[in-house]
Amino acid sequence: MVEVETMVFEKKKTSFLIALLFLLTAFVGMQTSVVAAGEPPISEAGGPYIGEECYPMLLDASGSYDLEGDLLTYRWCIDGVWIENGNYPYIEWTWNDEFSGELILEVSDGSTIVSDTASVSIVNVPPVILAFDAPSEVDEDTEFLVQVNFFDGLPDPRSQTPSSDSFMVTFSWDDGTSDDLFLGSGEFSAGMSHVYEEAGIYQVMIILADSDGGEARAEWTVVVGEVASVDAGPDVIIDEGSMFVSSGFLGDSDSVTYTAFVDYYDDSGAIPLELYPGNAFDLRHQYLEDGIYNVLVMVFNDGMEYGEDTVEVTVNNIDPSFESLSLSPSDAVQPNTAVQVTGSFSDPGILDAHTITFDWGDGSSIATDLDGGVFVLSGSHSYSKAGNYTVLVTILDDDGGMCSRSMLVVVKAPPAPSSPPSTDSIKRYIAGLKIPLGLKFSLVSALDIVPHLLKHHMIRAAMNQLHAFIHFVDAQSGKRLTQEQAHTLMNAARSIIQSLNVR
Fold first, then answer.
1. Class of the CATH domain delimited by 128-224
2. Which of 35, 167, 310, 442 has the most CB atoms within 10 Å of its CB?
3. pLDDT, tens digit, for every residue of 58-106?
4. CA-atom Rg of the chain in angstroms
5. What is the four-CA torsion angle of 155, 156, 160, 164, rounded to 10 degrees?
6. Per-residue pLDDT tens for 273-311?
């Protein structure tokens, strides 16, 4: 009976807890709804927006949202004009002129409207000259026309967007006069005529300025008066260091006196050019560096009659070459002894810089850079092991020209130290002689000190002792020693002395 009552109590307890949990959940949900209800949306206008005039820009309000998840509507205020954009947060806009300021975004959830601002900076785009039509040669007192076409804005041919700028076009004629022409928005063509009263060479300039300060320029040369015909000769190909030699002439061979100049275009500058009878001339110049040079010949006379012609001179690079290369010492050397490689070379391109590479043949190498005009080389190296090594010396100029030469270096290990000469053979010879024992003892005693002196490197003292031995033997010759015995002993001692002299 007790168990039944307990089970009933537990069931009631569980039902109570479930009901309580449901009640709390409903209460929290109600609280959440209360909090969210009536909250205004969030407006985000994006930006800052930075761009160029006439180039489309995407305005982005996608950062806007509503806490209740309501559908938002958008409208923008751009340049003081309100633009409805429905439920779409993006809008593309193009400023056709330079601008700096703010735009306004308004966002509505149907009951509340909130706004946000974003800064806008649109910079000016300068005009671009597309083409101009102008003569390069005109006669005196003759009117001619200059026409220029340009564009200002987005030049995309698929969808050109012109700016709203106006323009001032200035024609500067280089004769002390100029003309200005004002163009309104959308006018992209300008024409102006002019008359030169005096012959000459004039540098004409067109300056196109838009109303926001952007500029474009065009410049050209116009020759007023007759033009002299100049033939500077054919194009040529030579090697660097060689002399370019050619000749030319003027097509006009009348009595008019011309002044001529030539510029060889290697930074030497324009120099006077002598004209021979018949208005012929010679061209002569040495090129010290490879390249392509457009030689310009210019002539004119007092009446400003002008003419010019060019000749193309192609100068090929030439490889450097060895003049001498030597090794010191030239004989075999011992390990860890420095060998010196020296030499000289030449290069017709005397302005070329060079890189000298020494490959020593033992896995090591070194490179040295030489400035232009330096034509001597030097390098040293020592070898740690005996062997035969091929040294390769390479010269590379700064234009890719190259030459190389090799040399053999012989490295030999030092000879093993020789044993000091021995007096043992002389002692054995004395021991076999049939002479008095006292004499044998004296002879052997005179030799016993020699090995001791040699052991302590006292070579000079050992030689003196051997000389004393020779004198003693010579004194006994024909007496207690036969002449043959004495001769044998003295020759053996002299042989030891000679070997010690070599050491």
1. mainly beta
2. 167
3. 999 999 999 989 999 999 999 999 999 999 999 999 999 999 999 999 9
4. 53
5. -40
6. 999 988 899 999 999 999 999 999 998 877 566 788 999
Under CATH, which number does the domain 230-316 receive? 2.60.40.10
Dihedral sign of CA atoms 212, 213, 214, 217 in order: positive
18 three-class SS = helix
CB 82 within 8 A of CB 91: no
Q: What is the DSSP string of 298-340?
A: EEEETT--EEEEEEEEEEE----EEEEEEEES-S-B-TT-EEE
pTM of the entire predicted model? 0.48
CATH number of the domain at 49-123, please? 2.60.40.10
CATH 2.60.40.10 fits 321-411, yes or no: yes
Crossing angle for the helix pair 459-476 and 483-502, to the nearest 10 degrees:
170
Strand (E) or helix (H) holding 451: helix 437-455
- What is the 3-state secondary structure of 238-296? EECCCEEEEEEEECCCCCCCEEEEEECCCCCCEEEECCECCCEEEEEEECCCCEEEEEE
Q: What are phi and psi of 242, to 5 degrees?
A: -85, 165
Q: What's residue 414's pLDDT?
A: 79
Q: How far apart are CA 230 and CA 247, in angstroms?
A: 11
Residue ranges of the domains in the chain?
1-35, 49-123, 128-224, 230-316, 321-411, 424-502
**Helix, strand, or coil (residue 344):** strand
For 370, the enclosing helix (H) or strand (E) is: strand 365-370
